Amino acid sequence: MKTSQTVADTLHYLADLGWEDLYRTPPGGGPAVAADPAAQAGADDEPPAAAAAAGPGLDELAARAETCTRCRLADTRQKVVFGTGDPRARLLLVGEGPGAEEDRRGLPFVGRAGELLNKILAAIGLRREDVYIANVVKCRPPGNREPQPDEVAACRSYLEAQIDTIRPEVLVCLGRVAAQTLLGSDAPIGRTRGQWFKVRGVATMVTYHPAALLRNEALKRPTWEDMQQVRDRLRETAESR
């Protein structure tokens, strides 16, 4: 599909949801500017730039993860799903764990939830290539069950090293498992979403996992409210530099 058609589909989708306060980044950079989703739906878009090469440390971490046997998930995985995106990303998103399609392809968020995440990112003026996406565990739990505490503990050092290496300006916990893992809390996501926390020195927002939005459309509006805060925080840090 052509990039312009992909953008058009995304903007029509967001317009249907009532997401009117959208931003786009002008060609050549600069601060994001307001964009009406319906008006922009037919606008041409430049092809996405190639993602930056892996930064220092990430290649080594990924290589270690490829041969990791710290937990039982190594016995059933097809591929390790380490993470993907810009190693100098200002925004890092962390989900729960790989699903079947991610396990097959070795990339995070490439199924239906990933398609929705791409649209959410587009709504705040970002492309998938602009951010870094990872999961709490790097191997698929069988049957898409939640990762067990010992599996999370075995994989935690990889995630913490990703955060420390990338040093994003903003981190987003997608879903309860990511939030509870990184915040060290057993609070339900309904009590933590939409709030700012600090994780390893990084401003951190909690919101719903895109898969939850596919199951319950009522969660789309609060998720959009959370992501508007993320957008605004990124704009503020850009303006203060």
Structure description:
- The protein has helices at 3-16, 37-40, 58-66, 100-105, 112-123, 149-166, 176-183, 189-192, 210-215, 220-240; strands spanning 22-24, 33-35, 84-85, 91-95, 132-135, 170-174, 196-199, 202-207.
- The protein is globular and about 45 Å long.
- The protein is α/β, with parallel strands linked by helices and 241 residues long.
- The protein folds into two domains: 1-46, no CATH class; 79-241, Uracil-DNA glycosylase-like domain (Uracil-DNA Glycosylase, subunit E).
- It has ten helices and eight strands.
- Mean pLDDT is 84; it is low at 1-6 and 16-56.
- The longest helix has 21 residues, at 220-240.
- The strands form two sheets. The chain has a six-stranded mixed beta sheet with strand order 3-5-4-6-8-7, sandwiched between helices. Strands 1-2 form a two-stranded antiparallel ribbon.
Highlighted features:
241 residues; Uracil-DNA Glycosylase, subunit E; 6-stranded mixed sheet; two-stranded antiparallel sheet; 42% helix; disordered N terminus
CATH superfamily of the largest domain: Uracil-DNA glycosylase-like domain
**Which residues form runs of ≥5 with pLDDT under 50?**
1-6, 16-56
User: What CATH architecture of the largest domain would you give?
Assistant: 3-Layer(aba) Sandwich
Overall number of domains: 2
Largest sheet: 6 strands, mixed
Cα radius of gyration in angstroms: 17 Å
Shape: globular
Strand arrangement, largest sheet?
A: 3-5-4-6-8-7
Q: What proportion of the residues form beta strands (DSSP E)?
A: 5-15%
**At the third CATH level, what is the topology name of the largest domain?**
Uracil-DNA Glycosylase, subunit E
CA distance, first residue to last residue: 37 Å
| Average pLDDT, all residues | 84
